[in-house]
Write a structure and sequence with these properties.
Blueprint (H helix, E strand, L loop, with lengths): L29 H6 L3 H24 L9 H29 L5 H16 L12 H11 L25 H18 L1
């Protein structure tokens, strides 16, 4: 009775959605989402962030609030914080939707292939290392998988490195083998 039995927990595979573009990652780490963002994402995020305070200024101009001296500054600060939050979420959403295959993602697929093949060549883990147990990595994965779809409801990001990303990683190893073989052939 003093011995605790370890039972094998079932693996829950990532659900594959039918999308117009190929899936890159169903649960990308927040660093990857930020790193793969395009210039247009930054522009849309900045425009969204500026819209809140900008609209407050326009409304104050056409329909003054008459709050008196120092009353408008707190309103603008609040509008600025809300605008920055909305801008970041819009920026993040545009980037993560490409990982899911919801929007055109050719550039991101090429970046993903290059990054992962380079990791294979350096003999590094594809998705980083984690100090969490495999079970806790699975819990983290299940909690944040496709979380970007509900970002407007609950902002939830993946901060955990794990191996459960809903894609077949064999393609990275096959491409690395082809590249290494080409390098060997060219060297001879």
């Amino acid at each position: 009775m003093g011995e605790v039995q370890q039972r094998q927990r079932p693996y829950v595979p990532a659900r594959t959605l039918d999308t117009e573009f190929p899936l890159i990652d169903s649960d990308p780490h927040i660093k990857r989402v930020l790193r793969y963002a395009r210039r247009e994402d930054y522009a849309v995020g900045a425009a969204t962030a500026a819209a809140g305070p900008g609209l407050m200024l326009v409304w104050e101009r056409f329909a003054p609030s008459y709050v008196g001296k120092g009353g408008f500054a707190p309103i603008m600060r609040l509008a600025g914080v809300i605008g920055l939050t909305a801008g970041f979420l819009q920026f993040y959403n545009r980037s993560i939707f490409r990982f899911y295959g919801f929007s055109e993602n050719q550039r991101e697929r090429e970046m993903d292939m290059r990054e992962m093949v380079d990791k294979v060549k350096r003999n590094e883990p594809l998705y980083g290392t984690s100090s969490l147990s495999p079970y806790m990595q699975g819990v983290a994965s299940r909690n944040s998988r496709y979380a970007g779809v509900w970002l407007h409801i609950i902002p939830w990001f993946n901060f955990v490195n794990h191996e459960q990303h809903g894609v077949d990683t064999a393609k990275y190893y096959q491409q690395a083998e082809r590249e290494l073989e080409a390098e060997r052939t060219n060297a001879q």
